[in-house]
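Continuing the batch. This is chain 6 of the set; chains 1 through 5 are on the previous pages. Same settings as before, nothing changed between runs. Recording input and output for traceability.
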Amino acid sequence: MRVWHSLPVALGLLLPAGCNNSTSVAELPPFAMRLQPVFTAGLSSPIDLQAPPGDSRFFIAERPGRIRVVQGGVVQTTPFLDISSRVTTQGEAGLLSFAFDPQYSTNGFVYVHFIEDIPNTTGDIVVERYQISSGNPNLLDISSAQPVIRILHRDASNHYGGRVAFGPDGKLYLSAGDGGGGNNQFGHAQNAASHLGKLMRIDVSALPYTIPADNPVWPNNVGQNENWAIGLRNPFRYAFDAGQLYIADVGENAREEIDVVSASASGLNYGWSIMEGTFCRGIGGPCTTPGLTAPVYDYDHGGGRCAIIGGYVYRGAAIPELQGQYLFSDLCTGFVRSLSLTNGVATVSEAPNVNVGTPLSFGQDGFGEIYVLTADNRVLRIVRQ
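Output for chain 6:
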């Protein structure tokens, strides 16, 4: 079980209840980069950073329920969106992510992903669509809000996941945690009828959304639904790149994992809670269960490591030598590592003498440059050494 309040600023995103330190990861080869502070004050719990392609502005979500506009290096006073009165921040909740529509330049749509404050409950996972104000490109029209999807999350106040993002196919994806508690105690992750512990895929070209015709059909009379993949624990962040899908799935107290598959691969089962990374837990089924998708890389909790924070594949221009490298970190140790795949084999490197402190999320601007958002309200840009 992991709780937000275990961090100094009430952001214990993914901390484990216990630590099962196994053999430490061998020393990794180095790669060169450094961290350049962009903001060190003025933001409240920054949790996501996005921008439309080619846009010189970028947008930062604050966990209490606001999205801020950064223009000319300055955080604008008026938020892009403020729904703080509707957002709960209990446990691991908050405004977690947002996504610009692939046709944003013409339709002005933005999809906002948050945990709604519902009295006497732990809140629900909600995605709503907003449209840009006709008179101000730095403001979303609050009256334009349209519901997209709601996932009930009433068991515990942790493991909400997740991220909302568009795939290369133009469909909207949403990752959700397994409902919280510990050890998949509510049984959602391996239940294909539940939307918890899943990666979902829907068609939002018109609302209400539809289920794409090529979504998988799940066995045991479940049939086709929104679920694209099952067997995830707390896939807080995932990313698409060059026809591939990268999922950083937070482990319980043994292994942290990265899954990399074709973005078009449907109906996969990532194994939780039968497996935790490459570690056999055997909860919900035998570890010999056929068809489980293994991670391309996982690591243990030696050396104080505790929870993977997934990032992006670098596609910026500032660091040519990082092209095609997937960057990620760990909540408790703050390293920055890169992962590349050759013929399905992962090579992992670590930036020496680089530590982000307590990373909460990565972000990506409109030109492919990558940022790290931290628990002490900093925004750091990854730049050339």
